[in-house]
């Protein structure tokens, strides 16, 4: 493995993933190479990793973007509730309702984008007489852990309304000869929504609501952080909610929640102190 090959590898990574991910991947590769060829001199690889690590800065500040799970659920419900207000164009009503349902789905069942975008009727979204379920085999998930969870009762009626009224409106927009998709999420072209399209719609709706975008993967942080804030004694349950194999991955959300709470308490202290000083000056 030569420096030239690694340089080409890094150049390709930079085009595809964030700087932080580039550094992590190169660091992991360096550790693998050191194990496979311990007699070789990998000092240059370690230097490259340190350079990349120094260059890489988190591309998004999660702490600034995290919102409560309740706020996201309220947004999804509001988008659905107002989609048919007045006399809207059926297409615009359908896309707004779809986006609201997407947001509500993501925050109540915070799956990875690969799974949320690939939900198909009768395949991953099934009804078995006991309720409506989301099901993915271990081979279909990142962690190899099966997903088998019920649709929340609060969303079943809304899901049925989408399937009966709004999804057909979107399906009708497909070009002649285009096969009917089984995808739950239908695009404005009447085809299955791809991950990129879902991501863009969610970012747009959340930016309109909160002043900043909440990207889909951040919903997982929002869900786990809200659990850590509202119910810290049971924060380990978030591991199951997010499909983590262990609590170690989930624990960072608890840490993030503590940082957020500390920041809020500090801000309240400063504001109270400022108010007290102003009151003294007025006296």
Q: Can you describe this structure?
A:
By secondary structure, the protein is mostly helical. The protein has 3 domains: 3-59; 65-217, Intergrase catalytic core (hpI Integrase, Chain A); 232-282, no CATH class. It has 12 helices and 3 strands, in the order H-H-H-H-H-H-H-E-E-E-H-H-H-H-H. The protein has helices at residues 3-16, 19-36, 43-55, 62-65, 69-82, 90-108, 113-116, 153-171, 195-210, 218-230, 237-242, 247-282, and strands spanning 125-127, 132-136, 147-150. Helix 2 runs antiparallel to helix 3 (43-55), helix 6 (90-108) packs antiparallel against helix 8 and helix 10 crosses helix 12 (247-282). The protein starts with a helix and ends with a helix.
List keywords for this structure.
single chain; 283 residues; mainly alpha; hpI Integrase, Chain A; 3 domains
């Amino acid at each position: 493995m030569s420096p030239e090959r690694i340089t080409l590898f890094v150049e390709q990574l930079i085009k595809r993933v964030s700087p932080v991910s580039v550094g992590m991947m190169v660091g992991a590769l360096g550790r693998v190479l050191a194990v496979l060829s311990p007699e070789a001199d990998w000092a240059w690889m370690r230097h490259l990793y340190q350079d990349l690590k120094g260059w890489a800065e988190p591309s998004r500040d999660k702490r600034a973007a995290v919102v409560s799970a309740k706020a996201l659920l309220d947004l999804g419900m509001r988008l659905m509730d107002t989609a048919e207000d007045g006399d809207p164009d059926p297409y615009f009503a359908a896309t707004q309702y779809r986006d609201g349902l997407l947001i509500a789905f993501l925050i109540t069942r915070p799956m990875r984008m690969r799974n949320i975008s690939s939900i198909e009727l009768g395949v991953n979204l099934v009804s078995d007489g006991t309720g409506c379920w989301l099901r993915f085999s271990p081979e279909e998930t990142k962690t190899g852990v099966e997903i088998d969870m019920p649709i929340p009762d609060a969303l079943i009626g809304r899901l049925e309304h989408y399937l009966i009224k709004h999804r057909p409106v979107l399906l009708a927009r497909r070009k002649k000869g285009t096969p009917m998709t089984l995808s739950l999420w239908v695009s404005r072209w009447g085809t299955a929504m791809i991950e990129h399209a879902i991501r863009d719609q969610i970012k747009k709706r959340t930016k309109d609501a909160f002043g900043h975008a909440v990207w889909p993967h951040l919903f997982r942080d929002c869900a786990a952080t809200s659990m850590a804030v509202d119910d810290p004694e049971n924060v380990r349950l978030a591991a199951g909610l997010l499909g983590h194999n262990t609590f170690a991955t989930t624990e960072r959300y608890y840490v993030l929640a503590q940082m957020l709470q500390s920041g809020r308490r500090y801000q309240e202290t400063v504001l109270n102190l400022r108010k007290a000083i102003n009151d003294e000056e007025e006296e």
